[in-house]
UniProtKB/TrEMBL annotation:
Transmembrane segments: none
Species name: Anthropogastromicrobium aceti
GO annotation, biological process: nucleoside phosphate metabolic process; ribose phosphate metabolic process
PANTHER family membership: ADP-SUGAR PYROPHOSPHATASE (PTHR11839:SF1), UDP/ADP-SUGAR PYROPHOSPHATASE (PTHR11839)
GO molecular function: hydrolase activity
Name assigned to this protein: NUDIX hydrolase
């Protein structure tokens, strides 16, 4: 295994996100600096050190309604863009927590809905990297079905969330006109072009 990270310095000490300076060796043998944001609290926990891709967070792709014709979205205010953005419900996976458990918890906290995960394995549930040029964060996706009545009463004080149950026409509008997280955008494109149960593809693994 190639190891081109020669040293790591932790620059900040924040609760949820920190900056690290990497001493790196470039492909031509020269050395330099690289700056990485990570949710890890210690340099030994960084994926550059462990080479293990454990999921930092979970994203929930959930279908709603008897006809399975709506998808559960949130419209959330995000400080980095100082604006609202459409996303899937998501959150951090707590230590010792399974991704499916995290998905059930996060859906309830952010939307008040009851989430029933669909059992999947392999490539569809393993964690993938988000913005790997900037951070070592990776997230897994959990798929399933939601029921119940949406409510904001369980969201945290720091959150500003509008719950959106979007049909295919509304998803088309959102993609054309709104701020959308990229992982959400790709799955909305999938949702728009499916017929019947949007999660049927999981049965073809």
């Amino acid at each position: 295994m190639v190891d081109r990270v020669k040293g790591v310095e932790k620059v900040t000490d924040n609760p949820f996100l920190n900056l690290y300076n990497f001493d790196v060796e470039k492909r031509n043998g020269k050395t330099g600096k690289y700056y990485v944001a990570s949710r890890k609290k210690d340099p030994t926990q960084l994926k550059a050190a462990t080479h293990k891709n454990t999921s930092d967070g979970v994203i929930i792709y959930s279908v709603y309604g008897e006809k399975k014709d709506k998808i559960v979205l949130i419209k959330q205010f995000r400080y980095p863009i100082n604006a609202y953005v459409y996303e899937f419900p998501a959150g951090l996976v707590e230590p010792g927590e399974e991704m499916a458990q995290a998905g059930i918890r996060e859906i309830y906290e952010e939307t008040g809905l009851v989430f029933e995960p669909k059992v999947t394995e392999g490539a569809y549930t393993r964690p993938f990297f988000t913005t790997v040029g900037m951070t070592d964060e990776s997230c897994g996706t959990i798929y399933g079905y939601c029921s119940g009545t949406p409510t904001n009463e369980h969201e945290e004080e720091s959150e500003d969330i509008e719950i959106v149950l979007a049909d295919r026409e509304e998803c088309k509008r959102i993609l054309k006109e709104e701020n959308v997280a990229i992982m959400c955008a790709y799955m909305l494109m999938h949702f728009i072009h499916t017929k019947g149960d949007p999660l049927a593809f999981l049965d073809e693994q």
